[in-house]
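Quiz preparation item.
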């Protein structure tokens, strides 16, 4: 065990505290804005702490069900949950067998297929938006959950396949041979052997996929136009689209929008760390 000197220990903890401060300051300021009145936010010079704490913005978003603002926010929250969870579930259903196949294929074929998957994921959205928009319009799927789920699956499947493949590579192939000898098929091997071992990797892939779908803005902006399918990033942007932006309301919506993904990240943080690290070392 390597012992650090007092100066090194202070440097490590000081750096960690500084990093935490840098990461938390924007969130803290967002929360302060959300509980400030319009007067506090528009006063010059700027007041860093509100003279009067008010939760009216949260009430306006959550409790005032008769207002268009609350209806828009709650509908967007429901749409984001439906789209993110559905796209993540479908992507994992495709990515798990795809990653297993890529992990067990011979070298050249495996590398070429993996390159195609990564290249698809790396393509800029603006290069795909016109054909996707035309296709969704022809099928009558614009402004629906199905359109966003389909588009997000196209983004998430290559990413989750690549992430899971690197973790499946760390699982010895010898573990597949005994079930094969006993008469098990490949799907049974994946379900009973591979997935239990790679559970942290699957959790990490699921968390990353949900976060990517939850925060996506570009396709959601173009493919939706009302509360039937509009997601949270687009709804929050709409709050700032008027002549006078209500910064307190926007901040409150931003705080509320972070609660679901932060909660998921908190409960799956062990899976995230171990899942991302397990594929980095083989053996």
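Solution:
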């Amino acid at each position: 065990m390597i012992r650090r000197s007092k100066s090194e220990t202070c440097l490590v903890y000081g750096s960690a505290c500084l990093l935490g401060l840098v990461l938390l300051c924007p969130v803290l300021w967002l929360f302060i804005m959300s509980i400030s009145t319009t007067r506090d936010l528009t006063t010059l010079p700027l007041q860093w702490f509100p003279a009067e704490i008010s939760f009216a913005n949260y009430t306006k978003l959550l409790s005032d069900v008769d207002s268009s603002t609350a209806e828009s926010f709650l509908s967007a929250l429901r749409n984001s949950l439906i789209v993110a969870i559905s796209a993540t579930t479908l992507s994992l259903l495709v990515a798990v067998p795809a990653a297993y196949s890529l992990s067990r294929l011979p070298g050249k074929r495996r590398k070429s297929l993996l390159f195609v998957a990564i290249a698809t994921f790396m393509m800029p959205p603006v290069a795909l938006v016109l054909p996707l928009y035309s296709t969704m319009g022809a099928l009558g799927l614009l402004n629906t959950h199905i359109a966003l789920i389909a588009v997000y699956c196209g983004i998430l499947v290559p990413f989750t396949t690549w992430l899971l493949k690197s973790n499946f590579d760390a699982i010895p192939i010898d573990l597949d041979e005994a079930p094969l000898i006993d008469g098990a098929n490949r799907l049974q091997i994946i379900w009973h052997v591979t997935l239990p071992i790679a559970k942290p990797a699957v959790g990490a892939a699921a968390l990353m996929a949900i976060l990517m779908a939850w925060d996506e803005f570009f396709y959601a902006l173009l493919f939706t136009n009302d509360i039937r399918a509009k997601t949270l990033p687009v709804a929050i942007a709409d709050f700032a689209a008027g002549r006078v932006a209500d910064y307190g309301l926007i901040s409150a919506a931003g705080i509320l929008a972070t609660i679901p993904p932060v909660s998921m990240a908190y409960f799956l943080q062990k899976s995230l760390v171990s899942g991302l690290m397990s594929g980095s070392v083989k053996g």
